[in-house]
């Protein structure tokens, strides 16, 4: 059953900056695969399943013996259908969406395939945006495994696409993370092109930290998604900060998924650890603090599902740097009633309620729900 009166309507326009799609050609690739990420039909399930995460591998391997818990999640038409995206937006009174390819993007493809695939996916997103001008924009796929010269050309091409407003990146970089000095040229090019990075997790933490009961599926997706994802983002940004990336590329702008993982909560601890490490005090003596970086180069989405986390995000980055998101098509209703996915989603309602509780329904709420994104991502007037 749909939750009634889910969204207090913001007085200004509502923008969803964290909303994913897998274009049909990407789903075809997943269907052809035997290792994660993959799409597969399982006995006992009406719809194919999308299996993405390393944490899902143990269940994928044991499903023949035990079919009571299926690996992955249902691959609904919400993942690839433009019509469904617009229906979801209308249902939740979302005026504008900035769509992005979901994890794990093109990380699993050989570098020779990743670049043309990104071009095809970005072309698909451009065409989708053109069907609904003013309602859709996109963060482009940028496969860092491709040769740097191709990536630099592609960044310059992306900056002139009418609906492209940034790029979505995972945390793996060229295999050594985002503090790899080899990435500085890419970061500089993105900053020069005024294309922010939407940083999104995928790899989480090693399965061993979650234990055998999580591996058997007993704890569902709670540990990898609720804890592994945010820690991954936190670690990636902390590494960039310690490497001085933000000081070396002062115009680089990053939008962090899930309200920055745990950064707003842990920034003080990061600062304290730096201050108490003689070697870092010397090496980083002219640095800005992580608090300063959070308030000047970082934006956070408001996908944290609770008032306390959202207030921490507001305190860390400033209410004018926070932007609403849904994480659609992940986290659909689970009760499984016929047609329920076409109604209102509780996962959306949780983030809206958190915003109302954290900041009331005045100007700050309108900013977080849409006006900040319109300003930061230049969503006006195409
Ligand atoms: O349910 C999941 O695994 C996910 C995912 O993979 N990516 C995402 O953005 N949200 C949830």
Automatic annotation (TrEMBL):
<keyword id="KW-0210">Decarboxylase</keyword>
<dbReference type="GO" id="GO:0005829">
    <property type="term" value="C:cytosol"/>
</dbReference>
<feature type="domain" description="Amidohydrolase-related">
    <location>
        <begin position="116"/>
        <end position="379"/>
    </location>
</feature>
<keyword id="KW-0456">Lyase</keyword>
<dbReference type="InterPro" id="IPR032465">
    <property type="entry name" value="ACMSD"/>
</dbReference>
<dbReference type="InterPro" id="IPR032466">
    <property type="entry name" value="Metal_Hydrolase"/>
</dbReference>
<protein>
    <submittedName>
        <fullName>2-amino-3-carboxymuconate-6-semialdehyde decarboxylase</fullName>
    </submittedName>
</protein>
<dbReference type="GO" id="GO:0019748">
    <property type="term" value="P:secondary metabolic process"/>
</dbReference>
<dbReference type="Pfam" id="PF04909">
    <property type="entry name" value="Amidohydro_2"/>
</dbReference>
<dbReference type="GO" id="GO:0016831">
    <property type="term" value="F:carboxy-lyase activity"/>
</dbReference>
<comment type="similarity">
    <text>Belongs to the metallo-dependent hydrolases superfamily.</text>
</comment>
<dbReference type="GO" id="GO:0016787">
    <property type="term" value="F:hydrolase activity"/>
</dbReference>
<dbReference type="InterPro" id="IPR006680">
    <property type="entry name" value="Amidohydro-rel"/>
</dbReference>
């Amino acid at each position: 059953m749909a939750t009634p009166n889910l969204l207090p309507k913001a007085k200004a326009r509502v923008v969803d900056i964290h909303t994913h799609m897998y274009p049909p050609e990407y789903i075809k690739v997943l269907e052809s695969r035997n290792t994660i990420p993959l799409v597969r039909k399982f006995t006992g399930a009406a719809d194919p399943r999308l299996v993405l995460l390393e944490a899902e591998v143990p269940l994928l391997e044991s499903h023949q013996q035990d079919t009571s818990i299926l690996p992955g999640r249902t691959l609904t038409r919400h993942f690839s259908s433009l019509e469904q995206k617009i229906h979801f937006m209308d249902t939740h009174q979302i005026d504008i969406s900035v769509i992005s390819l979901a994890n794990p993007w093109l990380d699993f493809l050989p570098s020779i395939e990743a670049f043309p695939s990104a071009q095809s996916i970005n072309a698909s997103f451009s065409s989708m945006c053109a069907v609904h001008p003013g309602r859709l924009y996109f963060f482009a796929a940028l496969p860092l495994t491709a040769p740097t010269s191709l990536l630099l050309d592609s960044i310059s091409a992306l900056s002139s696409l009418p609906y492209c407003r940034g790029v979505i990146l995972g945390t793996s970089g060229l295999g050594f993370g985002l503090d790899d000095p080899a990435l500085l040229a890419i970061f500089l090019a993105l900053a020069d092109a005024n294309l922010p990075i939407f940083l999104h997790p995928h790899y989480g933490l090693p399965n061993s930290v979650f234990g055998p009961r999580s591996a058997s599926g007993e704890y569902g997706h709670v540990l990898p998604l609720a804890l592994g994802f945010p820690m991954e983002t936190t670690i990636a940004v902390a590494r960039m900060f310690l490497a001085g990336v933000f000081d070396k590329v002062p115009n680089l702008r990053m939008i962090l998924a899930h309200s920055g993982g745990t950064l707003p909560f842990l920034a003080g601890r990061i600062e304290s650890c730096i201050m108490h490490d003689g070697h870092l005090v010397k090496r980083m003596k002219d640095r800005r603090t992580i608090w300063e970086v959070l308030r000047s180069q970082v934006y956070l989405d408001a996908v944290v599902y609770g008032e306390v986390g959202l207030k921490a995000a507001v305190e860390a980055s400033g209410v004018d740097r926070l932007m609403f998101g849904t994480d659609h098509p992940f986290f659909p209703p689970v009760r499984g009633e016929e047609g329920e996915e076409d109604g209102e989603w509780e996962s959306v309602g949780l983030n809206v309620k958190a915003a109302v509780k954290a900041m009331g329904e005045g100007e700050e709420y309108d900013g977080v729900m849409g006006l900040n994104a319109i300003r930061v991502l230049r969503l006006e007037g195409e």
